[in-house]
Amino acid sequence: MAAAVELVNSAEVPDTMTEIAQLDEFFDRHRYSGDRTRDAGELTAVRAQRAPLRRLLTADRDTAVGLVNDILAAHRAVPRLVRHDNLDYHVHAVPSNAPLDVRIAVETAMAMIDLIRADELTRLSICADDTCEGIVLDLSRNRSRRYCSTACGNRNAVAAYRARQK
Ligand SMILES: [Zn+2]
Ligand SMILES: [Zn+2]
Fold this sequence. Notes:
mainly alpha
């Protein structure tokens, strides 16, 4: 889910998913596995997932259910338990040679299943910064996260500090 949030937020200005090297870094950081083509087509396809994933991550519960079911059906997802690299058994719902954008979409849908079933969609919100539409994923126990990034958090902390000085 953190990967999906980061991917959606990369569309905020300035766009941080415009080069294959940025996709490489994203892929490694979130420990994605499976095949890559590492070409412009793959990057374009991944970038094109950002708008639909944003709709999914900001949907209300019933809407999210419909979107998740649509994604799983569209890609004929078949859950399988797999073990690879240093990871113990976990579920993959599409083959590791499916296109990267498909794997990201299906994996996000699978992560949304957990949030929907636990009725925890409030873990996802929009950044409290007035000028930012980034998505915030708050997995903290006390649900204290309000900003999508440390940059947004710091900017607002400085603004609040200045306001107090007046
Ligand atoms: Zn895996
Ligand atoms: Zn933000």
